Amino acid sequence: MNIGFIGTGNMGTILIEAFLDSGAVKEEELIITNRTLAKAFDIQKTHPGITVARDAPETVKQAAIIFLCVKPLEMVPLLQQLAPYWTDEHCLVSITSPITVEQLEAVVPCQVVRAIPSITNRALSGSILVTFGSRCSASCRQTINDLLRRIASPICIDEAITRVASDISSCGPAFFSYLLQRFIDAATAKTAITKEQATMLATDMIIGLGELLKRNLYTLPTLQEKVCVKGGITGEGIAVLEQRLDGVFEAVLAKTHEKFKEDVKKVRQQFP
């Protein structure tokens, strides 16, 4: 079964590379295109078995499952361009969070899925947030779940939690890498440790933390209990974090939801 990708920016490329690395898809099964074709040809240089289609309609003609990896405000013009080419047998997979499956189903005749990826999927890890449209057949759901399961943990979500779920799974890596970088910067600014040493230690620490959680050896609360000896050094550091971080993540979520509402409003104006 051929799989098409319209849009080979950051997330489109991450998904393509992840599917190939996992063995979920063969190069010969991929049809890709991009508004700037040079970007698609750059991927083909590394994976010569991939077919680069000249445009989006050609991609839809050649593939059964189509991943639309474009920005929210580019979606409606793209769908208008593709209107003559969809069939009932196609499965459209959108990775764009502000656009609902209901909005997509209103303008295309095919089966619709929304799958919001994370950069962690590039390491065949993390979650991918899935919402199936009402027209998705049982076989389509099974095919998409089987495909996504090769690169991540597919998590079915309701529309109501789309933004916060995306904040955790998709934005979370950026948020916590920023905090980790600030931790490293503070260590190098205040002590004799080099940036290289601090980065290596912090990287090993975060990977080890992930392994502890992955293997269910500890929960987040029990990890803190095990490391924080009463009256010890770690406890003093935690006390500072409790004071300084109070309300920080509430403010972060408020800001992401505010921006999401703006995007949803702009998108809604484009849809009939």
TrEMBL record:
Q: Where is the Pyrroline-5-carboxylate reductase dimerisation domain?
A: 161-262
EC number(s) stated in the UniProt entry for this protein: 1.5.1.2
Under the cellular component aspect of Gene Ontology, which terms does the record hold? cytoplasm
Functional pathway = Amino-acid biosynthesis; L-proline biosynthesis; L-proline from L-glutamate 5-semialdehyde: step 1/1
Query: Where is the protein localized?
Result: Cytoplasm
- Which reaction is catalysed here? L-proline + NAD(+) = (S)-1-pyrroline-5-carboxylate + NADH + 2 H(+); L-proline + NADP(+) = (S)-1-pyrroline-5-carboxylate + NADPH + 2 H(+)
Keyword list (alphabetical) reads:
Amino-acid biosynthesis, Cytoplasm, NADP, Oxidoreductase, Proline biosynthesis
Main EC class of this protein?
A: oxidoreductase
Give binding positions for NADP(+).
Answer: I6, G7, T8, G9, N10, M11
Under InterPro entries, the record lists: 6-PGluconate_DH-like_C_sf, NAD(P)-bd_dom_sf, P5C_Rdtase_cat_N, P5CR-like_CS, P5CR_dimer, Pyrroline-COOH_reductase
* Superkingdom of the source species: Bacteria
Q: Which GO terms describe its molecular function?
A: pyrroline-5-carboxylate reductase activity
Its primary localisation, in coarse terms, equals cytoplasm
In this chain the Pyrroline-5-carboxylate reductase catalytic N-terminal domain maps to: 3-97
* Gene3D superfamilies given in the database record: NAD(P)-binding Rossmann-like Domain, ProC C-terminal domain-like
Any one biological process term the GO annotation gives: L-proline biosynthetic process
- What's this protein's function? Catalyzes the reduction of 1-pyrroline-5-carboxylate (PCA) to L-proline.
Q: Which NCBIfam families match?
A: PRK07680.1 (NF005814)
- Record family assignment: Belongs to the pyrroline-5-carboxylate reductase family.
Q: What is this protein called?
A: Pyrroline-5-carboxylate reductase
